[in-house]
Amino acid sequence: MTKRILNVVTNVSHYDDPSHPTGLWLSELTHAWHVFEEAGFEQTLVSPAGGGVPLEPRALKFPNYDRTAKAWRADPERMALLKTTLAPEEVDSSEYDAIYFTGGHAVMYDFPGSEGLQRITREIWERGGIVSSVCHGYCGLLETKLSDGSYLIAGKRMTGFAWTEEVLARVDKLVPYNAEERAKERGALYEKARLPFVSYAVVDGNLVTGQNPGSAKETATKVAALLTA
User: How many domains does the chain divide into?
Assistant: First the structure.
């Protein structure tokens, strides 16, 4: 049977300070989408509120704006997908083999508090599906608890955008919290690459996480490998 991936994207367009725009880091979706598409998987987009998805302006500039991102923006049908994402209540988690949380600083605002996304993630995980994220996508896992009340990421090896990368990206004064620290507070065994901004992905059972935008392809490739094993 064809494997199905649920890709999670944001609805938020700016930081707390409205003069600083943000949104989906497009290549974190397009790199993974391409890997999953090549593997023959079916894919769906969901967002915390459903509907439209703003794009992070910085992700549309070199070197972040690469072949897959350009191809997506040039394709009206693909762009239309970002205007019509499903809301969590429209999603039957039993139809999906994996969930993949994309990033961009915007997700720090709307991913953690989405009870709908938490439900979907918990249900996929507890029936043996794959839970994955890249970059700030792990913010979508920070508040997710399992049926026994424990945090899904507790005791799990994982990664995500590092605080040192926030500082180097000069957004440490803009972000609403330190995601790396919060993951550790919830019991995650957080790790990162020795150098910032290089591709780095961690697999711990059915949990697959990537550190930064450059890790999307590697993360998706590891997810695909688990699904086709």
Answer: 1
What is this structure's pTM?
0.98
Q: Computed over its alpha carbons, how large is the radius of gyration of the chain?
A: 16
Coil, strand or helix at 124: helix
Domain housing 155: 4-228
Number of C-beta neighbours around residue 12 at 10 A: 22
Say if CB 107 and CB 12 are below 8 A apart.
yes
What CATH number has the domain bearing residue 224?
Answer: 3.40.50.880
Rounded-to-integer distance, Cα 146 and Cα 135, Å: 22
Residuewise pLDDT in 10s, the chain (229 residues): 899 999 999 999 999 999 999 999 999 999 999 999 999 999 999 999 999 999 999 999 877 778 999 999 999 999 999 999 999 999 999 999 999 999 999 999 999 999 999 999 999 999 999 999 999 999 999 999 999 999 999 999 999 999 999 999 999 999 999 999 999 999 999 999 999 999 999 999 999 999 999 999 999 999 999 999 9
